[in-house]
Amino acid sequence: xDRLRAxxxxxxxxxxxxxxxxxxxxxxxxxxxxxxxFAVGDDDQSIYGWRxxxxxNILAFDKAWPKAxxxxxxQNYRSHGKILxxxxxxxxxxxxxxxxxxxxxxxxxxxxxxxxxHDGADEARFVARTIAALGRQGVAPGDVGVLFRANHLSxxxxxxxxxxxxxxxxxxxxSFYE
Length: 178
Description:
Elements: H1 2-7, E1 10-13, H2 21-30, E2 36-39, H3 56-59, H4 61-64, H5 81-91, H6 120-136, H7 154-163
Parallel strand pairs: 1-2
């Protein structure tokens, strides 16, 4: 640990909320209290418990590194107010959290829609039909973007877009068919 601390006097950890117990212990050896540690994380975004992540690590951060300055980034520059209101409503139910209230200077925005899909194909049909409906209102397909958590999820949507005869381009990745 001493050799590694000498080689890397500054340590940065991104997605701290997704660290596991071994990583937490290793970090305590590499960047003990008083060292130059910069950690970024969001206790409300801890989603990898199935692979060993322990949200308790970020909840205990201020105890493990008591002199660290904690900066809460609560202002959102991307989303409209209604999206943040919904997000705040969801995360308020998290029982183990540090607490924050997301806010924006942007306008409230249009009402949110909720569609409960039975599976990926149902979700893709809904998205494709929504894009087709937007097209009938004058929105060009090229003005619509769909974000994926993982590229392999594109197959259902590519098939649904094909059935609706909607053109599409997969950006920063490959089409499932490629």
